[in-house]
Description:
By secondary structure, this protein is α+β, with helices and mostly antiparallel strands. The protein is about 25% helix and about 30% strand. A five-stranded antiparallel sheet has the order 2-6-5-4-7. Strands 3-1-8-9 form a four-stranded antiparallel sheet, with helices on one face.
Amino acid sequence: MNEQIQTSTVRVFIALAPPDEAKDELARELRPAYDAYPNMRWNRIEDWHITLAFLGELPVTTVPLLRAPLARLAATRPPLQLALRGAGCFDERVLWSGIDGDLEGLHLLATEVRAVVKACGVALEDRPLRPHLTLARSRRDDTGSAVKAAAGLTTFTGRPWRAERLHLVGSNFGRGPGPIRYRDIDAWSFGEHGAGAGGDERSSRSEV
């Protein structure tokens, strides 16, 4: 998540990110699908994430209001034990990998994150949490590739890992036919008061 954000508005969401080892494990499992379905729009591995709250398009001046409350929330929450497992499709076009592990804790964290966002005055659509990693999207005239790719991941069970950081992520890329690009605006370690971004080679802090 390392593209520069320079516009007056930014698409914002709050998420967890699997560690590199978990991403690499799933990427190895995906190699046959990469070869078999090259026309799908595959997300970059470094951009894989579990969305907890999608805030949509915000003025960049609104984003700083979220930082302190989210930092305080992260400091009060323990890391979550999660794993990647299986796969599926949304609308036969969006390929995703499922999430296993402490799902109760994950849903509780998402509820608390959304409460913080609303308390900051940001309108938020109350969609139910469906924990997943979005891996790829097929083209509009292709309703088979994503389904077949998901079938190849049905038995995949990744090793457990700890989600240790809460990420505030922005994007002003990928609004055309190309792939979406993300960047960490900030990130906070769980259970560490005053922690900020840093220490993760696939994360960075933006001045948004």
